[in-house]
Amino acid sequence: MSAPAVPASRSRTPQLLGLSLAYFMVLLDTTVLAVAERSIMTSLHTGVVGVGWATTIYTMALAAALVLGGSLADRLGGHRVFVVGVAGFGAASLACACSPDLAALLVFRALLGLFAAAIIPSSLAVIAHLYPQPRSRGRAISAWAAISGAAMAAGPVLGGWLIGLSGWRAVFVLNAPLALVVLVLCRSRVATARRDRAISWLPHLGLAATLATATLAITRAGQRSWPQTVLFGLIALALAYGTALVDRAAAAPLIPGPLRRNRPVWTAFGWAAAVNYALTTVIFSIPLLLSASPTRTGIVLLPMTLLVAVNPLLTGRLAAGYGPVVPIRLGFAAFPVGLCLAAAAVTGDHAVLLGVGLLLCGLGVSWTLPALVGYAVENAGPDAAGAVGGILNATRQIGATVAAASAAAILTPRTPAVPFLIAAAVCLLGLASAMARNRTRARQRAPEAPAERGSR
């Protein structure tokens, strides 16, 4: 069978715009909900733990299904999986908007996460086909990331405006017309490659069960229900161990064999989880602590969200000139300082201090995330880039899930600073790891110098 023809550049532009808008929609659903927390609590008669579950169940489903979404895109074709994901995301968003109670909202939020997990890897598969040349593909992926990254800046402000007009349900209604626009832009079928790739369902189900049980354990700990905390914690550990055993024997494992002992790649996965833990702590906690309207809350978050949207372009230049570890170290140095300033600000009315803290948090995210993606791909090799991308996004969502569950369990009027201080400690561990990684590389290069001098 001959390879399908590459679309002309004019026909590729609407497709790329649609693919970027789809990812924008997925990220927007994460950030826009932050300013809707108080409105949801009032409307559905729930507390911090309930609205915490509304956040975590989305990231939990997304984390558990991202690798599966990539496998389905390989097996069924990227364009087909993408279209189903977008249509399902729009429909599930309308269902969220019509939810009569918290239980229904949680069910439909979980569906949103599953459809989002189909959108992200399949959109990358379609881009790879539309732009087969490495240089043009790199520019296309940069545009995809830049357009979608604007969701971080737009989400809180747009969400605040919509809630002011029509309440929290409007933030979900917004996704339906966005999904229709995406489907129109991507209506031309793209014949992406299909591989006869097996899918092992048990590891995916085990991962989902592990995340759900671990989240329950964290929630029960926040409610001081220690027997249930211990019980769910032990079950989560057992599920994690069982999932790892099943995955090793699976025909299509979650983690490919070559990556299992690749320490640099696993280090990058840990960094990704740490960054999203800190980011989600800020996005989840600040709206609950501010006595402000949703619109003002969105504006308060702008120092962080704008940098997250804009600064990655500069981070790419920094990583190209000095290597990816340098911006990673800078990010992990800026993040804990920003989190500590935010912790000090939320204990009193210190708007300027909070703004500076959020600015540093924005630098922390925008320096680390783009660089650690490059670091992971560089150390994995091109053949494993797809698997690394899926697992990296999954670990990011795991970090976000744990952060939202922890903040919902810990955050009280008496302990407003504690979630930020815990996140700062997590980032300091990331900084220590980045520093140790540089020393390890230096030791590995040191023995080579005498040999080179002797050969000369």
UniProtKB/TrEMBL annotation:
Residues 15-442 form the Major facilitator superfamily (MFS) profile domain. Pfam families: MFS_1. It is found in: Cell membrane. Keywords: Membrane, Transmembrane, Transmembrane helix, Transport. PROSITE patterns: MFS. The chain crosses the membrane at residues 50-69, 81-104, 110-131, 143-162, 168-186, 198-218, 230-247, 268-290, 296-314, 326-346, 352-377, 417-436. Signal peptide: none annotated. One of its GO terms (cellular component) is plasma membrane. InterPro entries: MFS (IPR011701), MFS_dom (IPR020846), MFS_trans_sf (IPR036259). It is a multi-pass membrane protein. GO terms for molecular function: transmembrane transporter activity. This is MFS transporter. It comes from Actinocatenispora comari. The gene is mmr_3.
